[in-house]
Amino acid sequence: MEATKVLDAKGLACPMPIVRTKKAMNDLASGEILEIHATDKGAKNDLAAWAKSGGHELIKNEEAGDVLKFWIKKG
């Protein structure tokens, strides 16, 4: 999956992964993809809900060890 931008939110607790994601999304054009790396287990539900409420699409998420990875396409 080719992301336009990668956001490192590892080690951040809620709500910082969402705050950083929102800020990073502002820099992207519609249709571009943001890849987020987080370690906060709550980010799984938080980012899915945030993407849906913001009109974005959570394309994929996966776990790689302790790191949660998300790909969100800007709506």
Automatic annotation (TrEMBL):
Return any one Pfam family short name. Answer: TusA
Q: Coiled-coil intervals in this record? A: none
The chain positions of domain UPF0033 read 7-31
List the Gene3D superfamilies hit by this protein, alphabetically: TusA-like domain
Matches recorded under PANTHER family: SULFUR CARRIER PROTEIN YEDF-RELATED
Of which family is this protein a member? Answer: Belongs to the sulfur carrier protein TusA family.
Q: What is the protein name given in its UniProt record? A: UPF0033 domain-containing protein
UniProt source species: Metabacillus litoralis
